[in-house]
Amino acid sequence: MKKEDAIALKEHGVRAIEELSVLLNIAFERCSPEEREQIKRGVGLSIGRIYVDLLAIIYNQYPEIDHLLDRPGETESSS
Questions:
Q1: Are 58 and 6 in contact (CB under 8 A)?
Q2: pLDDT tier at 79, thresholds 50, 70, 90
Q3: Where would I find the beta strands (DSSP E) of 1-79?
Q4: Average pLDDT, integer, range 56-68
Q5: d(CA 44, CA 46)
Q6: What are the tens digits of pLDDT across the range 16-61?
Q7: Of 25, 24, 29, 60, residue with least CA distance to 44
């Protein structure tokens, strides 16, 4: 896969995880404890699949686009 395609796929995958996290927050505010547990499990499984079946493949090929990867020698500058 081309790097620009990997970046586009990564962005969609990360957005999907962000949306699932929002969904989980809504469930915790509005659902019963039993429903929350079911939804939490479903969200966790979904995030795991997105990571394993999409993001890990992309990051394996293009580790430099992994936003969660600590890169030695890179530090945040404070002004």
A1: yes
A2: very low
A3: none
A4: 92
A5: 5
A6: 999 999 999 999 999 999 999 999 999 999 999 999 999 999 999 9
A7: 24
Are the CB atoms for 23 and 43 separated by under 8 Å? yes
Between CA 68 and CA 33 the distance in angstroms is: 31
Residue written as token pair 């990360």: 14
pLDDT at 76 over 50: no
Tell me which residue of 25, 61, 63 sits closest to 43, measured CA to CA.
25
Q: Which amino acid is at 23?
A: L
Q: Please give the biggest Cα pair distance in the chain.
A: 47
Residue 17 CA: distances (Å) to CA of 12, 25, 37, 50, 74: 9, 13, 18, 8, 26
Q: Which amino acid is at 8?
A: A
The predicted model scores a pTM of 0.77
**Which pLDDT score is estimated for 78?**
38
